[in-house]
Amino acid sequence: MADSKRPRVVGFNHVALEVGDIEEALAFYGRLFEFELRGKSDTMAFIDLGDQFIALQTGRKQAPDDGRHFGLVVDDKEAARKALKAAGVQ
C-alpha cells in the first residue's frame, strides 16, 4: 500500500499584500512599528516579522476591502494602539 501521508502545515513563511505605492506603505508601517527591512526593489519590499515576513507588492487594481484583514502579534499592545490612533487608523 502506498504511503498517502500528506505534509502537515506548521506555520506561515510570509503574507503578500498588494499596495498602491511601496514607499507610502513602508512609511505607514514605519509610523506604526519598528521593523527590519529584509529587502526592497521598485515593486516589492519585505518586512521581517521574526522568522516570517510581509511582502509588499505594487499592483493593486481593485477597490479597498473593508472586511479583509490580518492580525499581528506585538510586544506592547497599548503602544501599538497609540501608534494606530496617531496614524488615524480606526
Give an account of the 3D structure.
This protein has 90 residues and is an alpha+beta fold. The chain is built from two helices and four strands; from the N terminus they run βαβββα. It has a four-stranded mixed β-sheet with strand order 1-4-3-2, covered by helices on one side. β2 and β3 form a beta hairpin. The chain is globular.
* Class per helix and strand makeup: alpha+beta
Low-confidence stretches: none
The sequence of SSEs as H and E is EHEEEH
Distance between the termini: 56 Å
Major beta sheet summary:
4 strands, mixed
Give the integer mean of the pLDDT values: 88
Percent of residues in helical segments? Answer: 10-25%
Q: Brief description of this entry?
A:
By secondary structure, this protein is α+β, with helices and mostly antiparallel strands. The chain has helices at 22-32, 77-86; strands at 14-19, 37-40, 44-49, 52-58.
Q: What topology emerges from the helices and strands here?
A:
Elements: E1 14-19, H1 22-32, E2 37-40, E3 44-49, E4 52-58, H2 77-86
Please tag this protein with its features.
90 residues, alpha+beta, 4-stranded mixed sheet, 2 helices
